[in-house]
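Lab notebook: predicted structure, single chain.

Context: the supervisor wants predicted structures on file for every construct in the current expression panel, including those that have not yet been purified. This is the next one on the list. No modifications to the sequence; it matches the entry in the shared construct table.
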Amino acid sequence: MTIYIHTMYYLPEYGSAPILMNELASYLSARGHDVEVVTTIPRPPHHRPFKGKFYLKEKTDGFTIKRYRTNFTVHHIGRLIAWTIYTFWSLWNLRRVQENDVLFLRLPPLQIGLAGWLARKWKGAGVLMSVQDIHPDLSIESGLLRKKWAISLARKFEKWIYKQADDIVVISEGFKKNLLNKRVDDDTLHIVPNWVDAGFMRPYPKNNRVSRRFSLEEKFVAMYSGTLTLSSYVTLEKVMEAVKLIENDEDFRLVIIGEGLKKPALEEKAKQLKLKNAVFLPFQPYEDLPLLLGASDLLLVPLDEKKAQISVPSKLYNYMAAGRPVIGFTDDESEVAHIISDAKCGLNREPDDVEGMAEMFQMLKKKPETLKGMGERAREYVEKYYAKDVVLERYEDLLVSLRGEQ
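Prediction complete. Output recorded below exactly as produced.
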C-alpha cells in the first residue's frame, strides 16, 4: 500500500499546512508505510531554489515528494486558477496509483476531490478527505461568490465531492454539523483535530534571543502569528482600532506576524489609524517560532463573525503549546471559544466590541499571575488532547482501515 498525500502547500513554505503535512508524511513513513507527497512548487519567497522547474521529484526522510508548478499570484482569482492547475496535476499523477493504495486529500481546494473520484472509479483506491476549511461557505461569507447561479453550482459541486470519499475527517464538532446539514453520510465522518509537536513547540522565557531581536522583551505584547487571509482580517482591523484607543501606553505592543492576501489592506489600515504601538513582521524561520511566541504575553485568534463556524485555525494549538494565554475574538458559539473555555486558558470577546477589546488588554496587563495560570492550563490541555503522536495514530488507523490492513 502506498499512501498519497495531496496538499497544495508544503515545506519549505511557511504555515500550518506545510508543517502538519510534513509531520504526517514523516510519521507514516517511520511507521513503515510507503508515502508520496503530491504538492506544488513553493510560492515566493521560497520559490528561488526551484527557479525554472515545472516538475521536481525529491526523496527525503524515507518518502517521496513530487512538486508541480502552479501560478504564484495571491489574488483570489489567481488562487482559484492555482487550485485548478494543481487539481490537473493531481489527476495526472493518478496514473501510478494502484488498487491497494490510499489517497489522503487535504481540502481546500475543493476541486482536489476530483482526484478522489477518479482514483476510486478508475483504480479502486481508497480515499480519505481531510476538511480544513469549508468551501464554498468561506468564499460565500467573504463575498467572493455573489451570483446566485454560481453559489448554487458551487454547493452542488461540494455535495458531489464529499460523496467521492470513503471517509471524511473534520477538525471540529461544528464542521461535522455543517456537513451533516448538507446530508453527508454520518458514517463517513470522523472528528480528528489538528495536532502540534509539543516537544518542539514548548514554553520559553519571554526574554530570549528572538524577543531581543525585535525589542519586545520589556513590552507587553499581544501577538498574532499566521496567514493574513479571508477568515480573520476584518476582526484584525477591529483589534487595531482597539489598540489605537490605548496608544498612549508606551509599554503595549500589537505584533502582527505573517503574509497573505490581506496583509496590504491591514498595513494600510494601520497607516490610516497612525498606529504607534503596532508592528508588522514577516514570517520568521520556523525553528524560531517557539521563541517568537514566547516573546508574547497574549496570543490572539481573531475570526470574522460569519466565518467562526467554518474555520478552526491551526495556530490555536501552537499558541496553547507555547504556554501563553489565548485570546479569542470570535463568536461565543465558535469552536475556538469552546476550546478556550474548556481549557480555561484565556478569554473570548465578540469581534465587533472595540472598546471591550481595549479594556480587556489593559485589564490583563495588570494581572500577571492570572496570565501565568492561563498559559499553564493551555499547555496541559494541548498535551492531553492535541499532542502529535496521539492524533497521528488516529489518522494512521483510518488510512490503514480503508484497505482492510491491520
